């Protein structure tokens, strides 16, 4: 088995991963923030 086989994770009674989806953070918000920060980094590097 590998990490890719994990579908559910519980730690200290809290479900962290359900059906392969992270339950503890807003993935869309993380992606949006990462994209805007990456764009700002590229601008600074130019």
From the N-terminal CA to the C-terminal CA, the straight-line distance is 44 Å
- SSE string, helices as H and strands as E: EEEH
What does the largest sheet look like? 3 strands, antiparallel
User: How do the strands of the widest beta sheet line up side by side?
Assistant: 1-2-3
**Domain count:** 1
Number of strands: 3
State the low-pLDDT regions, or none.
none
Instruction: Supply Rg.
Output: 16 Å
Total number of helices? 1
| Percentage of residues in strands | 15-25%
Helix content: 40-55%
Mean pLDDT: 95
Q: Pairing-aware structural class of the strands and helices?
A: alpha+beta
Shape by Cα distribution: elongated
Protein name: Amidohydrolase
Organism: Halobacterium bonnevillei
Keywords: Hydrolase
GO molecular function: hydrolase activity, acting on carbon-nitrogen (but not peptide) bonds
Can you offer a commentary on this structure?
By secondary structure, this protein is α+β, with helices and mostly antiparallel strands. The protein has one domain. Helices cover 41% and strands 22% of the residues. It contains one helix and three strands. Strands 1-2-3 form a three-stranded antiparallel sheet, with no helix packed on it. Strand 2 (14-18) and strand 3 form a beta hairpin. It is elongated, with a radius of gyration of 16 Å.
SSE map:
Elements (H helix, E strand, L loop, with lengths): L8 E3 L2 E5 L2 E2 L4 H19 L1
InterPro entries: Metal-dep_hydrolase_composite
Protein name: Amidohydrolase
Keywords: Hydrolase
Structure in a nutshell:
The chain is an alpha+beta fold.
């Amino acid at each position: 088995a590998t990490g890719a086989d994990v579908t559910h994770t519980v730690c200290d009674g809290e479900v962290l991963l359900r059906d392969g989806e992270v339950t503890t953070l807003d993935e869309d918000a993380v992606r949006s923030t990462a994209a805007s920060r990456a764009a700002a980094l590229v601008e600074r590097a130019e």
